[in-house]
Amino acid sequence: MLEFKDFTISYEKPVLKALNLKFQPGQITVVSGASGSGKSSLLRTINGVIPYFQPAELSGSLTYQGQDLLALDMAERSRFISTVFQNPKTQFYATNSTDEMAFALENRNLPRQEIIERIDSYTRLLGVERLLDRDIFTLSGGEKQLLAITSVACMNNDIYMFDEPSSSLDREAIERLKEVLLTLKKLGKTLIVAEHRLYYLQDIMDQFILLEDATAASYQPQELDEDFLRQHKLRSLTKIQKSDLQTLDYRAKSMTDKGFEASASLLAQDYSYSYERQPVFDMNLSLEPGINFLIGQNGVGKSTFLRCLSGLNKRFKGRAFYRGRLLKPSYPWLSMIMQDVNYQLFTESVWSEISIVSEDEAAKEAALAQVGLLDKKERHPQTLSGGEKQRLLLAMAKVSDKPIVILDEPTSGLCKGQMERMIEDLQQMAEQGRLLIIVTHDYELIKACGGHIVEFVR
């Protein structure tokens, strides 16, 4: 059993205080709460990232099977603790997927044949054989997430921790993730899942921990209902089906469909892209101002299409027009919030960052206030949380005068309250006549926000 007793985690002030929590083998514990409530800090304290890599003041006891975890460094804990981080790219060491699965096992000096058998066993057990021997750089965000999960599963540790594991996954991949969790549970593993999306976990969790106001409270799954969720501003337990979206303005779009509306405001014409001679799409797409959601399975080409439209992919064919004018170069026309926002932060303060796109002091202050970052305007952008970085980029898109705004998986890492604030921002920009393109697997976002939906299908 993993146990916290009277445990406090502090930076400048307590993030979590007086924790008394137990995590049992063969059980799934879901940890949730508002962004910034301490979910990642809790996981990092267990695996040793805190305090060995990220300084913090710790007090109280943290034990596993009676052993003092605080007396063990990160390497020693890695013998029985595995973690899948929110951004899987931060934990990859290889460029080939099979090499990545083997990396930790090789570091444990396991015999070659045992490594091969372990990888074969877990890829079959988890149903991800298609991820073997792939170039990691060609994988979609969801496929990278599944690779990270498989890689840590191959280590056959006692404790598995997952930080927002569904953030980049489509509906089918989330079902596979659920099966993975159940498989590890049957093997007697201790599973801790920090997550905002709760619908896929409600019937498999054994314990629910709510982090709120620097404290932690444990609940049984049957205690969770919609009133409880509303009271604590948590995401819904209801699974929204694709059929629910088809009652909105919905259309399916084949990746080889050349149909388009010639009078549309945005026209991507004769867009064609291949990777290593494998066609990704050969299509036309037309969109109007307002909120446009792009949905579809992991790997279908949604993010690749956005990268081509924004000029980040150079090896594609086709031209894009906005109200009859060629989008080349694209940066005077487009604001983009990537799935990994770390690629887009360049300066040494939040204020300097937003000043890149605007000189209007009042507008910048108002935008930062709306996303809850005005009091952090002197902070270095890389010290912000993942959700705060996304909100900074959203504020920058709002104050820029660019007519097209692109967002790739904008709700990954966002709690319900932040998602609702983001929806208000999206709707405000749409009312201003901007054209928004949002790639997402988050049907809860789409249902709450409304807009036009294009499903990419093969």
Automatic annotation (TrEMBL):
Name its cellular compartments. Cell membrane
Q: State the membrane topology.
A: Peripheral membrane protein
Q: Which PROSITE patterns match?
A: ABC_TRANSPORTER_2
ABC transporter domain residues are: 2-238, 250-457
Give any Pfam family that matches.
ABC_tran
Key words, A-Z: ATP-binding, Cell membrane, Membrane, Nucleotide-binding, Repeat, Translocase, Transport
Entry-linked CDD domains: ABC_cobalt_CbiO_domain1 (cd03225)
**What does the record give under GO molecular function?**
ATP binding
The principal localisation class reads membrane
Q: What does this protein do?
A: Probably part of an ABC transporter complex. Responsible for energy coupling to the transport system.
Family, per the entry? Belongs to the ABC transporter superfamily.
Q: What is this protein called?
A: ABC transporter ATP-binding protein
Organism of this sequence? Streptococcus panodentis
